[in-house]
Amino acid sequence: xxxxxxxxxxxxxxxxxxxxxxxxxxxxxxxxxxxxxxxxxxxxxxxxxxxxxxxxxxxxxxxxxxxxxxxxxxxxxxxxxxxxxxxxxxxxxxxxxxxxxxxxxxxxxxxxxxxxxxxxxxxxxxxxxxxxxxxxxxxxxxxxxxxxxxxxxxxxxxxxxxxxxxxxxxxxxxxxxxxxxxxxxxxxxxxxxxxxxxxxxxxxxxxxxxxxxxxxxxxxxxxxxxxxxxxxxxxxxxxxxxxxxxxxxxxxxxxxxxxxxxxxxxxxxxxxxxxxxxxxxxxxxxxxxxxxxxxxxxxxxxxxxxxxxxxxxx
Length: 314
Ligand SMILES: [Fe+2]
Fold this sequence. Notes:
By secondary structure, this protein is an alpha/beta fold. It has helices at 20-26, 34-54, 58-74, 81-88, 91-100, 136-139, 217-224, 297-302; strands at 144-153, 164-168, 189-193, 199-205, 210-211, 230-231, 234-240, 247-253, 272-273, 276-277, 286-289, 292-294. Strand 10 (276-277) and strand 11 (286-289) form a beta hairpin.
């Protein structure tokens, strides 16, 4: 009898070749690094178990292959469909939590992280404190907001000098500038650097909920799962400072629709913020105070953050 259907230790006959998965794992050569060996062995095991448990057919597997191929074909420097596909399945949020969570013995916590998302762009304009990231035409359409706060070390409470704050959000039509030919290049994006006092401030808009692009594989998955594509209103941040672990995060308008059912599962309680009506400033209708707390590489390592090395922040 062939290995298919062989009995294992006298127990119930195994429906599929019982040694197949291990033989695929064993094919890894001696020069593979320990981490590559660990990750691929686990991936192969889970993939094979998934196929066996669900009795995956060739047609169903091929649908998955086509979904990945289509995501690849759609992706370019302005669209990251592979990442979006991961996002609707909650994978980026989970990996973010695994990578940045501090061990629970910390007295205080640095600002919580949230996914980078597929709309980040490098080289946003460097702006002076107090500048506006909104193009003039866009500014007439939204709720003008003055955002400000202080960035401190989460263990000492001291302000941090030299933090580069990278900020980005959508226009009132729910589109990031690279999705919208009517917006100027780098609209609603900017970088600011803190001085000795660790303070920052700039003008932006109160964001709006928006649907993630659903004309590709991620949209097909959402449709098949009977889910909507909307994200609650949020502003993205990437904070970097010498000696500190970078923070990738988003803050969410507490009163926004979809706070309870974000299509990409990124909302955390500590990242909910309140936009306050603001008077006395001709440039703003709302005020948004928010302080960030960063962890030094040393503290991050002490508290067991995965990958908390100087290199990981490069
Ligand atoms: Fe976003």
